Amino acid sequence: MPIVTVIGDGQLARMMQTEAIELGQSIKLLAGSRDSSAAQVCHDIVIGDYRVWEDVERAVQGAHAVTFDHEHVPTEFLNRLSGMGYSVQPQPAALLYAQDKLLMRQRLEKMGAPVPEYSAIESVEEALAFHDRVDGAVCLKARRGGYDGHGVWFPGSREDLRELVSELLGQSVPLMAERKVALVRELSAMCARTPSGQVAAWPVLESVQRDGICVEAICPAPGLSDDLAAQARDLSVKVATELGVTGALAVELFETTDEAGNPQIFVNELAMRPHNTGHWSQDGCETSQFEQHLRAVADLPLGSTRPTAPVTVMVNTLGGEEAPDSPIAYRFAEVWRRFPSVKIHWYGKEWRPGRKLGHVNLCGYDATAEGIAETRKIANLAAEYIVNGKWADGYVGKPENS
Amino acid sequence: MPIVTVIGDGQLARMMQTEAIELGQSIKLLAGSRDSSAAQVCHDIVIGDYRVWEDVERAVQGAHAVTFDHEHVPTEFLNRLSGMGYSVQPQPAALLYAQDKLLMRQRLEKMGAPVPEYSAIESVEEALAFHDRVDGAVCLKARRGGYDGHGVWFPGSREDLRELVSELLGQSVPLMAERKVALVRELSAMCARTPSGQVAAWPVLESVQRDGICVEAICPAPGLSDDLAAQARDLSVKVATELGVTGALAVELFETTDEAGNPQIFVNELAMRPHNTGHWSQDGCETSQFEQHLRAVADLPLGSTRPTAPVTVMVNTLGGEEAPDSPIAYRFAEVWRRFPSVKIHWYGKEWRPGRKLGHVNLCGYDATAEGIAETRKIANLAAEYIVNGKWADGYVGKPENS
After folding, report:
1. How many CB pairs under 8 A join A and B?
2. Mind spelling out the 3-state secondary structure of chain A?
């Protein structure tokens, strides 16, 4: 079986290893430390820094394909690896559009994909001009390096914008701005593509965000019209194809309404790797995004994306403000005792407030609005219990041995 | 999360690691070699021999629970570990009945479970007397150490039996004999039980055997009456409870007909660990047998055993007489190109004729006889292609890029 080097040691790499085992592979990892989430569960590890060429070079030795669990590897390293004949997936020319938000906007606009009004920001004057153009509805973004709400700002006034841009440009942060969209909700359209050009799309889902972090995903997106679902799915396939993306692609979308009050979508972000909004596929789909990603980067035919349940809900377990008193195994036990269908995925990371420590998936077999609400309620209760050691609905538990 | 030591390095331990990763665990392994199936994909490995006390002792250091991927660990070691305070799951007193077929028969008979007529065989005379008692329908078994058809004999005549028993007793192989059952088919009733006594049963399935090796499993068993299914399921729960089994339990059953022509079941074997007939649960059930086993041995509440498809078929890929010319990744690709829903599980083992190298699972959404036949056909075609690099139905493939 092909050897796949994964650069990155977080939970995405960890969950790739899960699937690699079943495919008869074992991934080779470039990890920052031996106790990182992925390094805990892999055998073949190179300890090093993805920003150091020599470390990257050691990690790719013998690899049939090189892939990533984040977008932060320097583009020059990726080009160098490509030049040496390594199969870098996604290829640097595609990955660029997940790394640089301004280039992404420009490229998507060129292909006719719906993007919010935007502008490069290289001076305070440009920022203020954009502010006036969009009537103050400004979202300012670092072009590179942002994630989970980092690198995104919503300045409250013209004066705030002036100060912020001045400060960030002073720190040499390359910037862009876009019109803040009047959001109905966020959607995610995911697909995977092989170097040979095969594409397989998953159902379009709803993603619930809090403070710029995905906290919940519901697949398929409830109440989404067939028409808009097809439009979003086709868009993800088009982006994958025209940009030459390989592996998993997440097209994060804003759903809004046009002037006539009809639903409309805009592209928010692209991620070219397994994505938080695709975790539902581990328990709710014939092929999980992690298996699909490994197959895609090795140019193997893609698997069926058929859902195995009418609805699947994923809820992240983010570290709470305080670490709970009870041991984690106790909290898992309480969740499983109350809800035997809840699937827990845990990343082996140390608790830290706001940190993604794991997620839960729950399949629902009733796709009515009430059924979906019930599935969401249970998944959220479970996730909150894992975080806080408390039932948000005041449940006091069953007597022992009941 | 609890640390679980697994004694054994085969595919069962490997597939436990898959689930351990998602549960936030990483299992500690006692492995015979670093390139064994499970050791390839684990981080925390003790290289040693399960028949050497010092090696076992090293492997269990710090473990919250100790479990197995085979039954061959000497009982005295297990007792010693228990005596030292280790949580050995299943406990030696239960495991004994999976290790010794005569004790198992005696114990099951005592609890009123249906077993074929049997006898201890300590002399040639006893063997011949048993032969006459069952009109020559003799199945001779080694009491300990058999697997996959090893340690089971069907002597063709009284004379063959005399020679065989004489030879085996001469080699000090402890023996028993039982009446050969007029088989309709084989079934498997699986459940898991925690040390606290919670039991969860999976649907009863049909197991297809060739030369004493499981080659296919169909879950649920097609055409099984609700009554017989309940009887088999209740039997597995009873065995688990009365014997104090912990972890996964497979009760392998013979389905036959009584004198009135009604279906009847007899217990064939017990396995106290994840079992080949439970592999379907990886893709066809909310909780796989590997996850359930890990939860059970750590005394955590059990997961839902709800199937996610009307029927799931598992087919083993056993090494063929000759290794195929094509690389394994090419064969996987051909299978996936033709059948995108086929899930391949591969054990990372070297090819050897008859060796269990992997298996495929396929969910079917049509539970009619024709639908089940079609799902079985596809799963078998896929497995055969992986083994031989040839389509058994003469399929010649699609043109490139179609």
Report:
1. 138
2. CCCEEEECCCHHHHHHHHHHHHCCCCCEEEECCCCCCCHHHCCEEEECCCCCHHHHHHHHCCCCEEEECCCCCCHHHHHHHHHCCCCECCCHHHHHHHHCHHHHHHHHHHCCCCCCCEEEECCHHHHHHHHHHCCCCEEEEECCCCECCECEECCCCHHHHHHHHHHHHHCCCCEEEEECCCCCEEEEEEEEECCCCCEEECCCEEEEEECCEEEEEEECCCCCCHHHHHHHHHHHHHHHHHHCCCEEEEEEEEEEECCCCCEEEEEEEEECCCCHHHCCHHHHECCCHHHHHHHHHCCCCCCCCCECCCEEEEEEEECCCCCCCCCHHHHHHHHHHHCCCCEEEECCCCCCCCCEEEEEEEEECCCCHHHHHHHHHHHHHHHHHHHHCCCCCCCCCCCCCC
Fold of the domain built from segment(s) A117-179: Dna Ligase; domain 1 (3.30.1490)
Decide if B24 and A348 are in contact by the 8 Å CB cutoff: yes
Percent of chain A's residues with pLDDT above 90: 91
State which CATH number among 3.40.1080.10, 3.30.540.10, 1.20.120.340, 3.40.50.20 fits the domain covering A4-88.
Answer: 3.40.50.20
Asked if A178 and A155 count as a contact pair (C-beta separation under 8 A), the reply is no
Q: What is the mean pLDDT of residues A284-294?
A: 98
Choosing among A35, A87, A286, A385, which should be mutated to test the B contact, i.e. which has the most B CBs within 10 A?
A286
Q: Is the pLDDT of residue A323 over 90?
A: no
Spatial distance between the Cα atoms of A208 and A222, rounded to a whole number of angstroms: 12
Domain ranges for chain B: 4-88, 117-179, 185-388
Give me the torsion for CA of B83, B86, B87, B93, rounded to 10°. -30
Contacts of B326 in chain A (CB under 8 A): none
CB crowding B114-141: b at 16 or more within 10 Å, else e? ebbbbbbbeeeebbbebbeebeeebbbb
Domain B185-388 is in which class? alpha beta
Q: Does A300 touch chain B (CB under 8 A)?
A: yes
**pLDDT at res. B298:** 96
ipTM of the complex: 0.94
Name the residue facing A341 among B304, B309, B363 (closest C-beta).
B304
Sign of CA dihedral B348, B352, B355, B359: positive
Most B-contacting residue of A1, A15, A16, A22 (CB-CB within 10 A), to test interface: A22
* A184 lies within 8 A of chain B by CB: no
Was A179 annotated as part of a binding site? Answer: yes
Please give, rounded to a whole number of angstroms, the shortest distance from the CA of A14 to a CA of chain B. 8
pLDDT at B305: 98
Residue B47 sits at the chain A interface (C-beta within 8 Å)? no
Model confidence pLDDT, tens digit, residues A58-101: 999 999 999 999 988 999 999 999 999 999 999 999 999 999 99
Rounded CA separation B200/B286 (Å): 12
Give the per-residue pLDDT at B324.
86
Token reading at A207: 């993603």
Across the 402 residues of chain B, what is the mean pLDDT of every consecutive 10-residue run? 94 97 93 95 94 97 95 93 96 93 96 96 96 96 82 94 96 94 95 98 96 93 97 98 98 95 94 97 98 97 98 96 90 97 97 95 97 98 95 82 48
